[in-house]
Task: structure prediction
Amino acid sequence: MNIQQNISLKPYNTFGIEAKAKEFVVINSLEELSILCAAFNLSERKILILGGGSNVLLTQDFDGMVIKINIKGIEIIKETNEHVWVKAMAGEVWHEFVMYCIDKNLAGLENLSLIPGCVGAAPMQNIGAYGAEIKNTFESLDAIEIETAEIKTFSNVACKFGYRESIFKNEAKNKYIIASVTFKLNKNPNFNTSYGAIQQTLEKQGIKELNVKVISDAVIAIRESKLPNPKELGNAGSFFKNPEIPQAQFESLKLQYPDIVGYPTQNGNIKIAAGWLIEACGWKGKIVGNTGSHKHQALVLVNYGNATGSEIVNLAMEIQKSVKAKFGITIQPEVNII
Result:
């Protein structure tokens, strides 16, 4: 375990923002993580946990310790006639883990293909796409309690999952470091192809017989057609959450804007497509200095090469203002702004 000083974080965030960490350490095992918590009194220090750096926007140098989680490993820990429980360590690349499950014909994560980031970050904000969320297949996770260096197990209920929310973004924030996540996957799948363009893509590809791989391939094709590759153009995927509004407000807006995109939620509200709102305000493809809204997906803010985190924050604020002024709807960042 090597603690480095004044390290550039540019290679460790998908926005490609230049910022320095006062201290930086890569953790490759549970043992190293326990030692770090115990020896460095992390509960009293300013820390930032990084996985794939795909949901972070750095706006300044970090005057503390950045901990890069690189703990690897995937194992099947239990199996029945209907289900398989798969445990993945926090440092596993999310998409590679999904592909592992696809290769074994295990269902439940196929709609979450090609989401950037690492396994450990997935439950923190209950990642989701195309009608699926982590909470649908999540069994449990093990996390190191920073103050005591002890391992604690969190069940699905204990994680308090919500829309891009969990206990780790609220009351347990900065109190735990996720070490591993266990998923309960299906041998007999119940496919979800109704959300987004999955069904249309399958029809276009001439797919008549469904399996986890063809759905995963369809999701990958959709994402690659709409979303920029962070290795080529700095971004953190969807920058804003899809806002929820009351049914009555949606009906009123629909009279003015018949094309507005919304989906009913279980609580009776309507979830509005933030990308549609942003595009309707004229931001799609617009370049502002070194940043802008992507030409294929307005929800994705991008770094055209030399943007600072503050530039991207300023752009996000202007987009928020215009959406609020036009629709009376407040959109909130999904990205963690540091």
